[in-house]
Specification:
Helices cover 45% and strands 21% of the residues. The chain is of the alpha+beta class and 443 residues long.
Length: 443
């Protein structure tokens, strides 16, 4: 077999392969003979099936398998000899080989290789290290959210306002075009209930209901956003008729022994409840701050390094991202048949970033021996277990499963790379508001 490698660009290569027909023919004969020794057919004793029948039954399949194997062997041998790290799958094409003897088969394999990466200087690159203290004020805000989550509701006869649970009937109709005045699919409901101010409905819809009193009806115009999920309505003007049937205001439970017990504090001690909430908040805040700092560190790593990335890896990641988005839409309730074909270019920038970061990440780990240590994994497990009632059971649960441990190893690996970047970059401590960090909405 003969191989020649040609450079087509920074990362793209073409490998010309010639596979001798004699080698293929000999291997095909060997495999068919082996099949014949074990083949069973009605009317023949095991191993006594005529070779001609074996060839008729399996000849084409064996021929294809041998050809695939021989080309694969030639390709692997050539890239190994050339010390090339292949990225993605090669694209094979038949070709005419000059000087090829008899029925020798010639192919071209076009492929990409991984780039050679030298990590750049990070000393002038800025990394934002997020900071957010957890004090009694944060405990108070968290308690208020918990009270709202456990609120009961009582009917009111005043105008509806934020935090009220409202029950409405509504009907939507097209406002323009040949369908003007006609109802549209999904635009009508009876005894529909939602909480004002939560953002579940479009802002214009909530704004129309806000201020209505029970028993009142209203007609108002609304234009759906251009990026609305239902494509038939995106950007379209409609008209809604709404009747407010009931408004209920929340009644928050008092912070007392009963409330503490509802949160798992058996003796109802409110001081102990606050201490547990604070501990849990500190763990949650630390996790979210670490995630923000990690994102900034990874962005800094990307900013300090520029190199070509294999297009085949980017294309494969675009496919993965599109499939993940499709699965997400189905999980949210969209029928699989209704999920539109997502243009892969929508994911191009994200995919390239992910591939580039993955290559950088791997090089930093390899060059600096940043693989996680067993004691680091153990500490991660112990820290996670502290938020549970029986920490040792949680520790045993993690340590007993290889997949769960692998997930923690990934977390530890990310921590190691983040710390490596922080040690070399220009770190700026950046305060973050508690509500922003926790995703609390202001109203």
């Amino acid at each position: 077999m003969q191989e020649t490698i040609e450079s087509l660009g920074a990362l793209e290569r073409r490998l010309d392969l010639t596979v001798p027909a004699a080698a293929i023919e000999q291997e095909v004969k060997t495999r068919l003979a082996k099949l014949a020794r074990n083949m069973k057919l009605p009317g023949f004793r095991p191993g006594k099936v005529p070779l001609k029948m074996v060839v008729q039954t399996y000849g084409a399949q064996v021929q294809a398998e041998v050809l695939n194997d021989k080309v694969g062997e030639a390709f692997s041998s050539a890239v190994t000899a050339g010390n090339l790290r292949v990225a993605g799958q090669p694209r094979l094409e038949a070709r005419t080989a000059e000087g090829a003897e008899n029925n020798d088969l010639a192919f071209s394999a076009t492929f990409e290789i991984y780039p050679e990466i030298t990590i750049g200087d990070l000393s002038a690159t800025e990394v934002q290290r997020a900071a957010c203290p957890v004090d009694e004020a944060e405990v108070d805000r968290t308690l208020e959210i918990m009270r709202k989550q456990r609120a009961s509701f009582e009917p009111v006869q005043r105008p509806a306002q934020d935090d009220d649970a409202v029950t409405i009937d509504f009907k939507g109709t097209h406002a323009e075009g040949e369908n003007a005045g006609q109802a549209f699919e999904g635009g009508s409901a009876s005894d529909f209930k939602f909480t004002l101010g939560e953002g579940r409905m479009l802002p214009e819809f909530e704004g129309a209901v806000r201020g209505m009193t029970p028993g009142q009806s209203k007609t108002f115009p609304l234009t759906f956003p251009a990026d609305y999920g239902a494509q038939a309505l995106a950007g379209k003007p409609v008209q809604f008729e709404v009747t407010l049937k009931q408004a209920e205001q929340p009644v928050l439970p008092p912070i007392d022994a009963g409330f503490a017990q509802s949160l798992g504090v058996a003796d109802g001690d409110t001081a102990k409840m606050r201490a547990e909430i604070k501990n849990n908040l500190q763990r949650e805040v630390a996790t979210r701050l670490a995630a923000r700092t990690k994102d900034s560190a990874m962005s800094a790593l990307l900013a300090a390094n520029s190199f070509e990335v294999p297009k085949s890896l980017v294309e494969a990641d675009k496919q993965r991202l599109a499939e993940m988005k499709r699965s997400e839409l189905i999980t949210r309730g969209m029928a699989a048949n209704d999920v539109p074909a997502l243009p892969l270019d929508l994911f191009a920038e994200q995919a390239e970033r992910r591939v580039r970061l993955g290559l950088l990440f791997g090089e930093v780990v390899r060059a600096n021996n940043l693989q996680p240590r067993p004691d680091q994994i153990r500490k991660l497990v112990e820290n996670m277990a502290q938020s549970y009632e029986k920490p040792q059971d949680v520790i045993n649960w993690y340590l007993s499963d290889r997949k769960r441990l692998a997930d923690l190893e990934t977390v530890a690996l990310e921590d190691n790379v983040t710390n490596w970047v922080l040690e070399r970059a220009k770190v700026v401590d950046t305060p973050v508001e508690f509500d922003e960090l926790m995703g609390h909405k202001h109203r």
